[in-house]
Amino acid sequence: MVKKRGYLSKFLGTADKAIQDGIKKADEALDAGIELGIITTKQARVEAKRLRKEAEKEVAKLQKQAEFEANKIRSRSEKKIKSKIAKLKQSPSPEENLRVLEKLGKLKKAGIISQKEFQQKKKQLLKDI
Predict the structure, then answer these.
(1) Do 25 and 66 share a domain, yes or no?
(2) Tens digits of per-residue pLDDT, 32-57?
């Protein structure tokens, strides 16, 4: 989950940087236009205001997208955690596995199960301990 949080932070950081770069370039273009007398100061203010509103909308859009992604990641993580907890609740305790292993040893000694069957089950039980 930490990796995903880093991913979202990186995503938002990149988006913020791109937006700031866009605003900076637009301001530079407007300043150049004013200096050259191509546009008036009033026109530049209007255009700058429009560009800032556009950037704010883009930021809001990116924040919603990041929030959506974070919720998806959170939901998947919760499902995985719940699944693992359910598996742990269903699996027998190590003590129970040892009791079963002892019973299997007695069954093998009595000749009820073969050495191969005993080894297979033993391997499975020890894996779960």
Answers:
(1) yes
(2) 777 777 767 778 788 888 888 988 89
